[in-house]
Amino acid sequence: xVSFGLxxxxxxxxxxxxxxHASAAAACAAASSAHLARQPRSYxxxxxxxxxxxxxxxxxxxxxxxxxxxxxxMGVGDTVDRRRLHAALRRHDRRARxxxxxxxxxxxx
Length: 109
Fold this sequence. Notes:
Elements: H1 2-26, H2 32-37, H3 41-66, E1 79-82, E2 85-97, E3 100-108
Antiparallel strand pairs: 1-2, 2-3
């Protein structure tokens, strides 16, 4: 899935570059930079929005592709090791408040 997400982002960036080069090629080669400067702001807004979507796709792909998550039931005194993280549950207690009861835990890492 990571490679597909990165491929999708690369495709968007490539298509934006192709669109800009095709737009510049429509004008004569000597005035291509002047032609790009004359593009309306909505054109540049479209380019920036597509690049933003590509950055979003890369971010989501990298986070979701490489995250690890583990649900663990722990009692007082239990420890969990995950790579360089060592977590221990020291204590937990109930706290009564107005209209609610909460559980509070103390842990050490």
